[in-house]
Specification:
Elements lengths: L1 H24 L10 E9 L9 E5 L5 E6 L5 E6 L3 E8 L6 E7 L4 E8 L30 E4 H4 L9 H5 L14 E4 L2 E3 L9 E6 L15 E6 L7 E10 L18 E12 L6 E13 L1 E9 L2 E8 L2 E13 L5 E16 L11 E19 L2 E18 L5 E4 L3 E4 L5 E18 L2 E19 L6 E3 L3 H5 L5 E7 L2 E20 L2 E12 L9 E9 L7 E11 L4 H9 L5 E7 L12 H5 L5 E4 L7 E14 L2 E20 L18 E22 L4 E14 L19 E2 L6 E10 L5 E9 L3 E2 L25 E2 L3 E13 L9 E9 L7 E4 L10 E4 L4 E9 L1
């Protein structure tokens, strides 16, 4: 792994040097020979690039000659018709305005670097984006159907437990996420986590430049985080958060006895400043310590000994520490290295609803990571960004009770959790991006290594077996209808490799027309379709005129998925040599009882797992067309149609399931033969309405309404259809399908009096699958539906929640505008205490159609923040 990292760094350095040499000899054939081009890059005092800065070119008489915005790499270019002296003004909220004199001489190209200083005046708050005045523009990366929140807004909107990622996840599209969940992009490169605590986050964006070839997933499947850099002066933040259930409403299902005690203590902070070794070295420290003494409510209509309604402690402790050092060289070049340590432990996890306390697990994890990043500006037209990390993770999980698991579908799940599992991982991630700007073109290309990891798995799940009973009477008689048990050595190690290459050209054809053309290539070991995994990307933005307030924007792109490590571990473990999965049903073992005897188990054929022949890496095609409109000087509105097509999606089938209307498996030498295949399909369409900006002098925000529909015939790589011989019959509403979805985030700032933040979410319900609760086809999977009943036909409950934040800042030195301040705020979540039910039973029987759990009731949270 160490050698590989050195080779990658060496290759990227050679690539950058080669491009630099090429640029010194190449000729720009696209530029008008009569024009002079002024190009540059905008950075802050820490060396971080600033995107979305407004750049205006003024003539000697003060007239405006050209305007533009800095792109995602902080770069810009302007054109003038003749040589002479000009002035550049650069503006960006949160920074002091910059005015720079430039001279266009005999050369056709003038280069300049702009450094913006942090503003020394109090800034107004916005959740409309990093720019408090969002502007419709034909820049590819400035689409107005994105969601963006800056640091000030993060401090003023209601954020439960400081978890800003969950707060912003409301703007994601669940059906666009890959097998590994949301894609996290930190400072321009994909990462495993933010690498800093909450107060060290500068901004969060979703759906920015959705078809960029630089990233593996589309815009609504990734969260982009920009973190703070080092500063020449000391700045710091300390946050304390407190919650106690005595101030909260009662859980909708905790109807008896005293209110369950819950308490959360959360302290978090960051500090940045000079390192004290020279004037070009700075640092950033961040820390988080979180104790959550929470409770889980268990509610069953009929448990093993009657109805159950009780609360069980479910404490969680999370600790995070990160340190980062920055070194600034001349010409804006910067190097930084960081180390982070994270530890989390949870007790009594996995219970609640119809899952009894006895089926809990205790889990923990810790991770060490070292991150290295280097930004090299070879010239005003050539930029190289290198980032890589190495890390180690250990994640064990143990069942509280190592006894057989039991379930009566629709009523309760109990016994042991059968969740004994341990995963270890040593990983390397790396990205190198070269940006070259020339004439009308901005070319980006490079290599992305999302994962090269040595993984170890200790799988002891289902060691005591998991029994399913068709009814409560059968449970009391110890007569299950199926049991699944694992036997053998569950230890396996392997190396997972995922590599991608990309190239993208963003072309500003005219001031009112931009297009981007990109291509990304994917490769993952354990797959053999290496010649076909090319993902083209395209985007355009067109304004009827250079100063038009309307922009038509669209694009399309192909995005590939990957399996994730657990599926690979299962394929290696259940190969017939390591672990054996034994499935007994009443058809294979007529006298099946609880517990099953060793003699009965020895008579069962083993189950195996395998990768189906011709399996490909799944892909998702997304395309969109929309109109954006500047409705006021400080607000925009966008309407966008988006279509998606999921192709070759992962699912699992039992290739040895009993034939219809029989009880015998076709190959009697094996039990279940799980084939992981890529034959699923998904189709989705949505219409999104988005608002961003300032509605009045005091209120700004963003809102998004989505009308959508998504159908598919798979729920992911671990999904089995009800009938493995007719998986097409599972074509129906996606598990995540919501017809209507509305979200609003906003802030109201009454100058020195108070600040007020609001978050509103209103969704229609997701579907519920109706099942019989029995193993009707004798394949050992209790997922059978009644005859003639499509999948996901029952309508689940809707969701409505209003959250609020009311705060006031106390200046400790009123005469200093940047002096220390203490901010106190009170947060209320689910203000109207709506009973937002989360799980409805779709199992035919006594509990059919009844809810067993809900989202938390109204909760209160106190926040204290000290900044200096």
């Amino acid at each position: 792994m160490r050698c590989l990292a050195r080779i990658v760094v060496l290759l990227m350095g050679m690539g950058a040097s080669g491009i630099q040499a090429w640029t010194q000899t190449s000729v720009d054939h696209t530029a008008n020979p009569n024009d002079h081009t002024i190009v540059g890059i905008v950075r802050d005092q820490s060396g971080a690039v600033i995107s979305g800065a407004s750049i205006t070119l003024l003539g000697a008489d003060g007239t405006t000659l050209d305007t533009t915005l800095s792109n995602a790499s902080g770069e810009f270019q302007l054109r003038v018709s003749k040589s002479g002296s000009y002035k550049l003004t650069v503006q960006k909220d949160g920074f002091q305005e910059s005015k720079t004199a430039v001279t266009a001489g005999q050369s056709s190209r003038t280069t300049t670097r702009i450094v913006l200083n942090v503003a020394t005046v109090e800034q107004q708050v916005t959740v409309g984006g990093d720019d408090s005045s969002p502007q419709v523009t034909s820049e590819i990366a400035q689409n107005q159907d994105s969601n963006s929140i800056d640091r000030d807004a993060l401090d003023r909107i209601p954020v439960l437990d400081g978890d800003y990622i969950s707060t912003l996840s409301r703007f994601l599209d669940s059906d666009a996420l890959g097998t590994n969940g949301v894609s996290l992009v930190v400072n321009g490169v994909e990462a495993n986590g933010p690498g800093v605590s909450a107060s060290a986050v500068k901004s969060v964006k979703i759906n920015q430049n959705p078809y960029s070839a630089l990233y593996s997933r589309p815009g609504r499947a990734r969260i982009e985080i920009e973190t703070k850099g080092g500063t020449p002066k000391f700045h710091g933040t300390v946050n304390y958060l407190y919650r106690d259930s005595i101030f909260d409403a009662r859980n909708a299902f905790a109807t008896s006895g005293p209110k369950p005690p819950e308490r959360r203590n959360y302290i978090e902070g960051s500090l940045t400043g000079p390192l004290g070794i020279g004037n070009k070295n700075t640092f950033l420290l961040s820390l988080e310590d979180d104790h959550d003494n929470r409770q889980s409510n268990v509610n069953t209509l009929d448990g093993p000994n009657g109805p159950v309604n009780l609360n069980v402690p479910n404490p969680d402790h999370h600790y995070f520490l990160s340190g980062r050092v920055f070194h600034d060289w001349a010409n804006g070049n910067q190097f930084n290295v960081s180390y982070s340590y994270e530890h989390q432990s949870t007790q009594n996890d996995g219970i609640g609803g119809t899952t009894l306390p006895e089926a809990a697990t205790n889990s923990s994890s810790f991770e060490h990571e070292v991150n290295v990043a280097y930004t090299y500006i070879a010239s005003p037209t050539l930029l190289n960004q290198l980032h890589f990390l190495v890390g180690y993770n250990d994640n064990p999980s143990q069942s509280v009770n190592r006894i057989p698991g039991i379930t009566v579908p629709g009523l309760f799940t109990g016994g042991g959790a059968q969740g004994d599992y341990r995963r270890t991982e040593g990983h390397f991630d790396g990205t190198d991006i070269v940006t070259y700007t020339r004439g009308k073109h901005e070319l980006k290309f490079g290599i992305d290594i999302p994962d090269i990891s040595r993984r170890g798995f200790e799988d002891q799940r289902l060691a005591q077996g998991f029994y399913s009973f068709p009814s409560l009477a059968a449970f009391h008689a110890s007569l299950p209808d199926s049991v699944i048990i694992q036997r053998g050595n569950g230890h396996v190690t392997f190396v997972e490799k995922v590599v991608a290459g990309f190239a993208e050209d963003t072309i500003r054809i005219r001031p009112n027309l931009s297009v981007s053309i990109g291509l990304r290539y994917y490769w993952q070991n354990y797959f053999h379709d290496v010649a076909t995994n090319f993902a083209p990307r395209f985007g355009f933005a067109f304004a009827p005129s250079a100063k038009s307030k309307t922009v038509v924007r669209g694009g399309a792109g192909l995005f590939y998925d990957r399996t994730g490590p657990r599926a690979i571990a299962d394929l290696l473990n259940f190969d017939g040599n390591h672990l054996t999965k034994l499935i007994a049903t009443t058809s294979t073992t007529p006298l099946l009882s609880y517990p099953v005897t060793d003699a009965q188990l020895s008579a069962l054929p083993p189950g195996i797992e395998r990768l189906s022949p011709n399996t490909r890496i799944p892909s998702n095609l997304q395309y969109s067309l929309g109109i954006e409109r500047q409705i006021t000087a400080k607000s925009t509105f966008a309407i966008t149609y988006t279509g998606t097509r999921g192709m070759n999606l992962f699912r699992s089938v039992d290739a040895n399931a009993p034939l219809p209307n029989t009880t015998n498996r076709p190959d009697p030498n094996f039990g279940q033969i799980r084939d992981v295949e890529s034959r699923g399909y998904q189709k989705g369409n949505s219409l999104d309405l988005a608002f961003r900006g300032r509605l009045s002098k005091f209120f700004s925000g963003q809102a998004r309404y989505s009308l959508g529909k998504t159908y598919n015939n798979t729920g992911g790589i671990n999904y089995f259809p009800a009938n493995s011989y007719a998986p097409q019959d599972d074509w129906s509403r996606s598990n995540n399908d919501r017809r209507h979805k509305f979200d609003l985030l906003g802030t109201f700032d009454a100058k020195k009096m108070f600040s007020f933040g609001v978050a509103l979410a209103a969704y229609s319900g997701m579907p519920v699958n109706i099942t019989t609760g029995n193993d009707d086809n004798h394949d050992g999977l209790v997922i059978d539906r009644p005859a003639g009943t499509p999948r996901n036909t029952y309508h689940g409950p809707g969701y409505l929640s209003l959250d609020m934040n009311l705060g006031h800042s106390f200046k400790l030195r009123p005469h200093e505008k940047e002096g220390p301040a203490l901010t106190a705020s009170l947060n209320a979540f689910n203000v109207f205490n709506n009973k937002n039910y989360t799980s409805y039973s779709g199992v035919l029987g006594p509990g059919f159609g009844q809810a067993h759990s809900s989202q938390p009731p109204r909760r209160m949270q106190l926040n204290l923040e000290f900044t200096f």
